[in-house]
Design goal:
homotetramer; 8 strands; DapA-like (chains A, B, C, D); alpha/beta; 8-stranded parallel sheet
Chain lengths: ~300, ~300, ~300, ~300
């Protein structure tokens, strides 16, 4: 793995069969779709992968399928999402065995954890996990924000290789960017402000929406890399319009269902995956909502299977 | 199992070795301590059991150890604490195999879940888990409150056998008590208001502090059962004083560490378990804090090992 | 004022004209209704009084109207609800001038305030306000909980005369009850658990629902005072059923509108106030919802104007 | 007033005497300091103005002092921060009388308000306030986020002239920017990402830190306006370093005290205001903390009074 990690590293959706088993064939097609789109790495078993809904065996299958199919062409980061250190370490062992290149871990959740304990959590992971650890800052799920000071302390001592910042707090992210040690990677998880994050010095992006349109995010990052910021912005604004798909599910379901359901519906409509199925208890999108997603795809120039649009 | 479930059903702490493995010998002694105290059931793998810190293998070991040692003398409820339905169902399969009598499940967490999805979560568990399901209402961990309406709807259709209410919202609990169908069990998880909860019609209590002093909670419930409410209150007020042990850790650690650490320190000081060890990344209580806990135990008349008090 | 303050002290609704001015005539009738019901004090300008919606002039008018009409027959507590100490002190000056007997103040809100600053807030109020100060613990509005330790520290130094506990956390309230100095008054704001609160040692209750049925709460407190706890519980359970009126507005409006609208609709239906009007931007209840409230009133034996029920 | 409002519109601090009265002489000097720095408007009575701590008379004095001294040279926006519509309208009347050019209002707070009620709140303000209304999106204080949909709906019907977005959610802000009607002004309140916000299409910035260094923010905005984004970024990064002053107060005080205290300490050290005093109950910064702030000022090239640095 290059240090720091850079570019587009989408959090790979986990295609499922109608019976809610991992659809490995679709997963392989999705990986091909992403690699063909030019992404620079893959993040499996994150929130957008429905890691929270996958059993241990399903998680292992996903990781083995992706790592095996990728075969080292790009780095594979493995989410180790769980409540506390011992359980996260258990996922780390599976990830190491499956050939992951790095781990992505949140702060503890469900428990009521002191900042000093969060720090210890990452220190223990760093010592024992056997792979570089990226912090996953996701307050909407974890209900704590990783402070810039904490991230920088852990970066300075080498416990963290980087952060995936899905907090939406770009001011705090910028403080990390400006004060971090060399090699510490800052990746934004905010799909709608990637040009801005790269402008500030972020190294890359982990966009859930990148499942649907990896080419768009790759174009965005490439434009920024060559200094063509106007092109980067234009691409980002197109992706902002595409992001409307996550609002189609509306208030009749949770934000997880609406977002993950939209990504999978779009991947299904684009012909990448076999079934637009999300794990229970998520409410599925209906036919009308699928049609609206199809129109939003078409409006940004994405072909939809069987429609000729 | 009797219906509704009644009495004192402590959430059993999980003793650990200094290496953070399950200390099965201490766990058996703890179960004996609780049974000797007269408790009416045992709840394993709840929050007070550090379920959030236990690996899958450790959870299974705890459950098998307790269920095996109890041998049907009292009902054993198994927590199936995890983020979403598929992962909870996996824990349920382990619990069924280990011989648990019922399951205790929270709403989904980490994910952003709609009330209709929470309802579906419990419905799916009820259909597939193979054991009666108790809802675990714990907003401090799960970040959603189970409404009285939701609980009553699930109770009416038979999807839930009862609720362990650790929300602290006794007004809402009372609405459930007054409107529930026959056989639906309401258990309070609020250790400091058990007499009041019983007075309102609750069926029992799941007190973390009951690990330390099961005799006290059993006396409380027995006094209430025979209508001697003054005795129940006197016992409860004594237990309120004992509950001060959870505040000894103070602001230098999280609320989980301070509470679970205090219970384990007290069990160690009383000679029940071999080591006052909690799982990482929880900050341990120090010697001074142990001494203060010892004094609080003595002040309510609990013998402390080796001190003669 | 007797110390500690005891009994039923309803937070007096503020009747309004269709043009959203204070309806002083209805307010006087409401005070008479409450005094006739036997209440032991009146709390004006609290949350149930829509204090958050009243201008300075309206607040003063309400306070002068009530204090003038009461004429010392019962203590009048004045809410001084505002964001920070200087603004609260300004309300305190008005309250002193209007003849209030005591003040009720929350922690600062809107600002991000440290616990030491919350402590200073109450200390400054105690020094400068010129009347006894009751703390108003209302996390649902203020977004901080007043800890038992903070309340007890302020009680010990004489800065607080008591607390109106609307936190719903009866365990914490009990810790205050058991450790408070003599004369410090603990009043519950939880309408559904008054018998339990009195059982634990609370001195009284500040029930929003007491506007609608002061007689019921007075009977409840009287039964508890004479040791007839079964009668207290029976009355409380009847009031729990009556409390269903606050749920009629349902999800189409905020909890403030649904609750305050229901109290005012009930007072209108009972013939106490002239208009069931709440302040903007609260959504008003409609005719169908009024009818449902009427049925709920009738079901607990309250006469509704013009219906003969 | 030009439409849309653009440029640097600092939220003007409210200098205070040691006795916590408005220090009008210092306020005039601060306004001169800001105008000399080239700002394009002034926002008085916002959060950074300690509006939450000012009495009605103090608020009026501040507004009259600033509006009178500015004399139309730049637009003056007046915060009308209060809990609900009727109280906000009362502040609006004062603002109109004092000659403000526009109003800035939050969603209701303290009360529990439905989104439809928040919408009605802004509609009523628009109809009755007599000045253009800017929405102030400040979830950290108000505990609700104004959704992009709500802002756009109110923008489309002409009820809002713009938004001051202090939510930190730049993804949502971008959705507003891309979908807003002509003339609707989007101002960021996030001091650390102004270059990025302008890049996305925001019209200006309302930076609390702009009190301390208006020249810096004006240079930043000017650089962006002429397309010299590298210079804008360099200036922004310098201001990120300056922003470290808000962290000097650290965990011994609230975030309000630490931030507002730092701004005032810096203004005092720079010789702009007479006293580094904040309103009670905010904990004041001490001499050591003042010294650290002085060093941070010097490090970014700001002269400190009497030190020659």
């Amino acid at each position: 793995m290059t240090v720091p990690l850079t570019g587009v590293i989408p959090p790979v959706c986990t295609p499922m069969t109608p019976g809610h088993e991992v659809d490995a064939a679709s997963l392989v097609r999705l990986v091909d779709h992403l690699l063909e789109g030019g992404v620079h790495g893959l993040f499996v078993l994150g929130s957008s992968s429905e890691a929270a809904y996958l059993t241990g065996a399903q998680r292992a299958l996903v990781l083995e399928t992706v790592a095996g199919h990728v075969g080292g062409r790009v780095p594979v980061l493995a989410g180790v999402i769980d409540m506390t250190t011992p359980r996260v370490l258990e996922h780390a062992r599976v990830a190491v065995a499956a050939g992951a290149d790095a781990l992505v871990a949140t702060a503890p959740f469900y428990t009521r954890t002191h900042p000093a304990e969060i720090r210890d959590h990452f220190r223990i992971l760093a010592e024992r996990a056997g792979l570089p650890v990226y912090a996953y800052d996701l307050p909407v799920s974890v209900h704590t924000k990783l402070s810039a000071d904490l991230l920088l302390e852990l970066a300075a001592e080498g416990a963290l290789a980087g952060v995936k910042d899905s907090s939406g707090d770009d001011g705090a992210m910028r403080q990390v960017i400006l004060r971090r040690p060399p090699g510490f990677s800052v990746l934004t998880g905010s799909e709608l402000t990637v040009d801005a994050a790269l402008w500030m010095g972020a190294d890359g992006v982990v966009p859930g929406l990148g499942n649907v349109d990896p080419h768009g995010y790759v174009r965005l990052v490439a434009a920024a890399a060559r200094g063509d910021w106007a092109a980067a912005r234009e691409e980002q604004e197109r992706l902002v319009r595409l992001f409307e798909i996550v609002r189609v599910g509306g208030p009749r379901m949770g934000a997880s269902s609406a977002g993950l359901g939209a990504f999978k519906a779009a991947l299904f409509l684009r012909g990448v995956i076999g079934h637009p199925v999300t794990a229970p208890p998520q409410i599925p999108l209906n036919a009308d909502e699928h049609a609206r997603i199809g129109k939003l795809l078409a409006a940004v120039g994405l072909l939809v299977r069987g429609t000729g649009t």
